Q: What sequence folds into this?
């Protein structure tokens, strides 16, 4: 039983789950500046977001296997299917079950907190399912990056805030930008690494459409704009002055940029760039959360 649980946890790709944890937390913590923090509803909204992301990760693995995007040679999935830890059918059923649980939680939150949560949850669930699922297969059409930015930037951050206060806030929307950019950089790093195998499978990611040089510049831009946006928001007092501590992660960001720059398209040199970008997003996000938390202390 314990071993099976570890397998399912691996299928959920836990290293990537900061992508949903951080924006929901930013929205909820920012709301605490204006009203009493509702811990239970925060935890429920966080769990719903994590379940939706985990289900998308599982279904993405299944779809990539079925569509021959992921192979033993590509090594770009969780490896669950190729190591015979789960069958494709088991992974698909598990992903759908986790998606259903996330939707049930989202529906409960919508009934408690308003129709806007239902809209956000529906967009998130459908986007996660059709990210690689038929008939839309959005990632395979080069729409993965903008979709990831919207879901893990504005949508989840506004959702975390709205659950607390039942209204939206322009500042929260702006605060979602750097985290959304860094989360998009995780996906983009993955796509850059997988260009050869994705081309072979006949799909079109953004990296394939714009070419290697263009895809590198987009990665540089996503990382750079994350820091520029924090500086701008601090200057205009959208973000607290404490948010400047996000700059301590700059050496890690520059290390990732340099790794891509000197890789010369080598898949092996870029094997862990998505995970390293996820670590950067996690560190940056945690510092941003702490900075907002400090600003709530009166």
A:
């Amino acid at each position: 039983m314990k071993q099976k649980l570890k397998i399912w946890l691996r299928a959920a790709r836990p290293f990537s789950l900061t992508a949903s944890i951080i924006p929901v937390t930013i929205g909820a913590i920012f709301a605490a500046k204006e009203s009493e923090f509702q811990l239970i509803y925060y935890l429920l909204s966080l769990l719903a977001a994590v379940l939706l992301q985990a289900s998308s990760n599982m279904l993405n693995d299944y779809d990539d296997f079925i569509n021959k995007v992921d192979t033993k040679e590509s090594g770009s999935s969780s490896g669950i299917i190729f190591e015979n830890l789960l069958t494709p059918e088991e992974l698909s059923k598990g992903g759908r079950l986790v998606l259903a649980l996330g939707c049930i939680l989202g529906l409960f939150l919508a009934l408690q907190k308003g129709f806007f949560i239902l809209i956000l949850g529906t967009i998130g669930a459908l986007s996660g399912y059709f990210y690689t699922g038929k008939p839309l297969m959005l990632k395979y059409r080069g729409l993965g990056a903008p979709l990831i930015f919207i879901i893990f930037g504005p949508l989840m951050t506004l959702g975390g805030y709205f659950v607390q206060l039942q209204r939206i806030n322009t500042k929260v929307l702006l605060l979602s930008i750097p985290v959304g950019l860094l989360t998009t950089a995780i996906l983009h790093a993955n796509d850059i690494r997988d260009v050869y195998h994705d081309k072979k499978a006949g799909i079109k990611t953004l990296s394939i459409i714009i070419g290697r040089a263009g895809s590198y510049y987009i990665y540089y831009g996503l990382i750079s704009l994350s820091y520029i946006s924090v500086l701008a928001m601090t200057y205009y007092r959208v973000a607290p002055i404490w948010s400047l501590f996000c700059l301590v992660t700059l050496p890690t960001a520059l290390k990732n940029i340099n790794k891509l720059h000197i890789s010369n398209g080598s898949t092996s040199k870029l094997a862990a760039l998505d995970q390293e970008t996820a670590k950067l997003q996690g560190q940056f996000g945690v510092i941003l959360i702490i900075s907002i938390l400090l600003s709530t202390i009166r």
Remarks:
- The mean pLDDT is 93.
- The chain has one domain: 7-296.
- The radius of gyration is 19 Å.
- Residues 12 and 57 are 6 Å apart (CA to CA).
